[in-house]
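Good morning C.,

I know you're traveling, so I'll keep this short. The sequence:
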Amino acid sequence: MPLGIRIFLAYFLFVGLASWFVLSTVMDEIRPGVRQSTEETLVDTANLLAEILRDEVRAGTLDQGRLPELLRAYGQRQPGADIWGVRKTQVNHRIYVTDDKGVVLLDSSGAAVGQDYSRWNDVYRTLRGQYGARSTREDPNDPDSSVMYVAAPIRDGERIIGVVSVAKPNASLQPYIERSQTRLAWLGAVLIGLGLLVGGLLSWWLSRSLRRLRDYAQAVSEGQRAELPAMSGGELRQLAAAVERMRTQLEGKAYVERYVHTLTHELKSPLAAIRGAAELLEGEMPAEQRQRFVANIGNEGARLQQLIERLLNLAQVEQRQGLEERAPVPLRELVDTLLQAQAARIEAGVLKVENRIAPELCVMGERFLISQALANLLDNALDFTPPGGQLRLDAAPQGTSLELRLFNQGEPIPEFALPRLTERFYSLPRPATGRKSTGLGLNFVQEVAELHGGELLVRNIDNGVLACLRLPAVAD
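The tokens, ready to paste straight into the viewer:
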């Protein structure tokens, strides 16, 4: 399935579920919202009527006044109002008044006069000084026949002498609820449609851009001439630029030229020394001098061999896409082995070496590569440690990694050289000989660290240099 279609389906699913959730939630809130608003209006009406009726209820002349006649006239009114597209042709309030015992004194419907309403929740609670309201079905089997009742106390000072209740059928609110739900459903459908349209256009644009990049990459892989497609998106523009850089590197532009040039420069010096010594050896010279030139040839040959071997090792690591194995590697045991291999140099330089790595500390990775990396670090540290100097190794957990720290006493690294230490073929003169190394050791260590998901850091500290190699720790 094309990526654009998958993105669109995921977008469709997300927008659909989110829209359904929002719409259903809002739909469910319309009905209680309308009823809450209506209840608030009934509260105001009931309290207004309670103040109007107070004197007549207190005097016991409620049925002798004009209120019964007014309520009958009110029930016959036809408002003819157009409320947000809904036609209102009749009034829907029912009003009844009870005394302090809950007996109905007046009913706008005329059906309940003289009846005991003291057990109805609106009257019962109001007579006890609480907020009285209820919702009762006119037909127990019809949920749409419910009527909302809200009561207010009629007071004579602090004494409650009666209750006035105002009722409104919920069926009279249904047209407004249905109208709001219909409008909201249409609006939601339009918004969902617009959202899907935007999602479709976005998926088409992204799929088209990726297809153009794919076609470009295929053309490059087949050796065809191709122009880098112009991309409008920030990330896509960066991706296109990265593909172009990769093409440049694969074709060898700049990279191979710089590599070969530097390698040629590195090979010229030992080859020139070997050739010069060989030419001098063709003539007559004292045996002692001849031996010195022979030793020079041997040393330069060893240097060439070391350069080639390190280049081969570095090329092998650079071509790797992952590790061949992942196993626990005990650091202390590995470092002890490497120190024993360098015992002759350590003794010759009267160096003080401390291995403070705890025996239980292990890293997870490929033992051979880690051993080579540590050997390069140790070899580099020995080159820059003066006679009688100190080397110290320790390790400590750093989150999910283990940090191996190698300190060597000596002169600080020049500031200009610090950012270039892991650069290929870059090297500083060794204090003992004044000669440079292959410049591949620290570059190899960095490649091994990155292959393991770690990193190499080298910095100056008091009285020396500290190299920190971070590698994945063994999970508990």
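Safe travels,
E.
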